[in-house]
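Raw record, unedited: Inositol-1-monophosphatase
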Amino acid sequence: MNENEQHIRDRHALAEKIAREAGKVAFDYFSRRETLVIETKGDPQDVVSIADREVENLIRDRVSDTFADDGFLGEEYGLAEGSSGYTWVVDPIDGTSPFVSGMPNWCVSIAVLHDKKPVVGVIFVPCYEEIYSAAAGQGATLNGKRLSLDGRKTIRNGLTGIGANHHVTPAAVGKIVNDLLEGGGNFVRLGSGALMLAYVAAGRLVGYYEPYMHAWDCLGGYCIVEEAGGWFLPFPTEGGRLTKGAPVLAAGPGAVSDLKRIAGVGAGDSAAA
């Protein structure tokens, strides 16, 4: 094992530990969510609470305690540059709307970037006690069981996850649904992009597409999907792009071509395999 592999393994182990601790704190807030003060951000559907902020601060503090030179990007407090070449990208509670509405479709999502690529991904789902986990070259697991995607599953014999928000027009969302249904597929939307990406890695969904997402929503799931044998459309990380939104697309091997067509991804677009 070379030095870089050990660095990734160390961060992977810490990410799993932190995700469980953060999930416990988040679940405590979920259990008494009627006491939370809910605020809106850019849109009435885009909400935040003290739970999101406290969980992000917990994760940031735990990372800083062990890897003080690593960068950190969180949904609630933004980017703090590091000097180690590693950057943690975190959504403390992805699916805040389901969270505050009393639904179980939310999770803690943690990614670690190195050389601008996700090399660690951990998604913990407290309501189901499920932890999806991966590190570059080490494979992906769900509660310790190895994940491996089945190339026979397509949009026609499986479900596709889709996402929507106020950055995307109703017409654009309608076209995605229309094209998917015309192609013989069907869809679900759970309210958490990170959770649906985890479901792609687990083979529960054949793919996931959202025309506009942020890095903290997708990078953890991207690592897990790739290590399970899936494909994803790389998220732009150059310069300030890491903090901006971009299209997010991931799929199992049997659904890649159909979902690239539906998303309008051409042959010239870069991809991870």
